[in-house]
Amino acid sequence: MTELELVQKAIDDKIGKDIVTLKLDSAVADYFVIATANAPNHAQSIIDEVEKVCDENGFEILGKEGYSEGNWILLDLNDIIVHVFTEEARSFYDIERLWN
């Protein structure tokens, strides 16, 4: 499996909802993977699983933001940026519309 597929599977395994992958034409990253969590602790659990998969497969994690609050957690994997939101935060920020 590719890095992207492993990240998507890790999110799905932790029951992330409404998983969307955006292919970017940007120097920021190649992909955004966006998912919704039921609550901040669910978002943290999803990110924990993605980090575990990255560690197991030797994928570099460049940064993580928003983990302690859990409403919008960003995990930077260089070519892939993972965004896990609570439903309210995802609706408010609507990054799919901004980046699509």
TrEMBL record:
GO cellular component terms? cytoplasm
Q: Name one GO biological process term.
A: negative regulation of translation
Q: Which UniProt keywords apply?
A: Cytoplasm, Repressor, Translation regulation
| Record-linked InterPro entries | Iojap/RsfS/C7orf30 (IPR004394), NT_sf (IPR043519)
The listed locations are: Cytoplasm
Subunit structure of this chain's protein: Interacts with ribosomal protein uL14 (rplN).
Please state which protein family the record places this protein in.
Belongs to the Iojap/RsfS family.
What is this protein's record name?
Ribosomal silencing factor RsfS
Q: What is the lineage of its organism?
A: Bacteria, Bacillati, Bacillota, Tissierellia, Tissierellales
